[in-house]
Write a structure and sequence with these properties.
- The chain folds into 2 domains: 158 residues, Alpha-Beta Complex (Nucleoside Triphosphate Pyrophosphohydrolase); 138 residues, Nucleoside Triphosphate Pyrophosphohydrolase (Alpha-Beta Complex), CATH 3.90.79.
- Helices cover 22% and strands 27% of the residues.
- It contains 7 helices and 17 strands.
- A hairpin with a 4-residue loop joins strand 7 and strand 8.
- Helix 6 crosses helix 7.
- The longest helix has 18 residues.
- The two termini are 29 Å apart.
- Pfam families: NUDIX, NUDIX-like, Zn_ribbon_NUD.
- Its cofactor is Mg(2+); Zn(2+).
- This is NAD(+) diphosphatase.
């Protein structure tokens, strides 16, 4: 073990914790087809046998009650539009996404927070990729080097600047999310002031420049609730395209005798909660003992579910 990681791992025995299954938005079955993104003939074939997902500016798509994102056949008689992005292929059927206006949506349209846990493995991967990639295009119309308008190339996975020749690629911002427990039967739950009343979750924060994931966990927990942690262990990860995060999950141990000091303006309240209270909250759909847990589309829900089990 390297010296940096070793400073966060104590000699004590740590409970073995593992997620009970993949986080809802980490599931996927399609082949992303990266090698063909620059092959126009191959892209034309995938477009001709393609299915199209429409996504509105709020990141919503039409989702059936059975957990399927409703697609339409690509208008293969027409040229591929610049705004269509290739999500991948399965059985030589290309899956594409495009942005539509808010007026094109309907009452059955849902976002990933609402529908993510209900989707099939295939549809979870397609919808998550579509939301993140289209959001990146919305925010990357101009070159940060020279200010010239950019254009989408390589099936929507690159933007090219004709002014200075720079190529730009989709960004992913890593964030850590950590379940802090006492090594026994208590876990820390906290809430941000902007959340709905009663909503509590585990702690999270963005990784800073020059910082390792483990260092970020230790810093964020100390900043948000004022306690040191040890035994930082990886749990799993999940894309969270709101707009472009990757949530990297950990669990760590803190001493319940240490006072919790919520960060002013960032954490409204933080409490030690028993395992039985978390089990009760999960059993009744996420609300019990005066608090509500994160929805099942989030990795936070999966982490609490694993710890409660």
């Amino acid at each position: 073990m390297n010296r940096e990681a070793d400073q966060f791992v104590s000699a004590g025995v740590v409970e073995q914790l593992a997620l009970l299954g993949p986080p809802a938005l980490s599931r996927s079955t399609v082949d992303r087809r990266e090698p063909v993104r620059g092959d126009e003939a191959a892209l034309d074939r995938l477009w001709a046998r393609g299915r199209l997902i429409d996504v509105d500016p709020a990141g919503r798509a039409s989702v059936s009650p059975s957990g399927t994102v409703l697609t339409s056949a690509t208008p293969h008689a027409e040229p591929r539009p610049e705004g269509a992005v290739l999500l991948g292929a399965e059985d030589e059927v290309g899956y594409w996404a495009r942005r539509v206006t808010a007026e094109d949506g309907g009452p059955e349209w849902q976002d990933l927070r609402q529908a993510g846990a209900l989707l099939t493995d295939t549809d979870a991967g397609l919808f998550t990729t579509a939301v993140g990639l289209l959001s990146w295009h919305d925010q990357s119309s101009f070159c940060p080097f020279c200010g010239t308008r950019t254009r989408a190339v390589r099936a929507g996975w690159t933007r090219h600047c004709d002014g200075c020749g720079q190529e730009h690629y989709p960004r992913t911002d890593p964030a850590v999310i950590c379940l802090v427990h006492d090594g026994a039967d208590q876990v820390v739950l906290a809430r941000q002031p902007t959340w709905p009343p009663g909503r509590y979750s585990v702690l999270a924060g963005f990784v800073e420049m020059g910082e390792s994931l483990e260092s970020c966990v230790a810093r964020e927990v100390a900043e948000e609730i004022g306690v040191p942690v040890t035994d930082i262990r990886y749990l799993g990860s999940q894309p969270w395209p709101f707009p472009r995060s990757l949530m990297v999950g950990f669990h760590a141990v803190a001493d319940p005798a240490e006072p919790l000091i919520p960060a002013d303006g960032e954490i409204e309240a933080a409490h030690w909660v028993s395992r039985q209270q978390v089990r009760d909250a999960l059993a009744d759909g996420g609300a019990a003992h005066g608090f509500a847990l994160p929805g099942p589309a989030s990795i936070a829900h999966r982490m609490l579910e694993a710890w409660a089990a």
